[in-house]
Amino acid sequence: MTSSALDGVPHAFSTREELDLAGILPDGVLVRVRQVHSAHVVFAQDAMATAPEADAIVTDRPGLLLGIVTADCAPVLLYDSEAAVVGAAHAGWRGTVSGVLENTVEAMQRVGAKPERMVAVIGPTIAQASYEVDQAFRNRFTAKEQARFFECGRPQHWQFDLPAYAAHRLGEAGVGTIEDCGEDTYTQPARFHSFRRATHRGEETNGRQLSVIGLR
Question: Domain spanning 4-126+162-214: which CATH class is it, in words?
């Protein structure tokens, strides 16, 4: 699946179906990192024979297809068309709290991008109605964040809005256009892998979606 907000730049969010990478960016080279739920961002100049530990990638080099994998966390693809800079971020709650999205925006700025020109699209991720958390989890957030991004659930539990929180952090970083595709990974087993759903069902948890973006 793709987003109209990113028209003109090669990109896609996978479902359970594998992406046709050659169709997205012919002769493109997939660049991946070893994701560790951090706020670390790397700049890709080439294919990177050894994948570094990071949770976001930025490049201004044509021919590289930046890829991140998710299975409930938020995949975020970013683009500044004027500067010809792209970024891909794995925004789980840990990385988002730690600043992975702000760090991605800053890394893009270092090669000429400007936040107000950037387009950021949040791909398939777990929705608030599907994301139950306990009080200890909620306590990791500020009082204002608790009021805005958590709704009451069953006793001593809350529903956390990860895509809205990611959009908020992107907005705080100055990103000009932010779009949420609005696809809940948890409630669509025929379309998406979901780590939480698989855990609840006692199923294999190794399925992942791949999200990619690159420059021609």
Answer: alpha beta
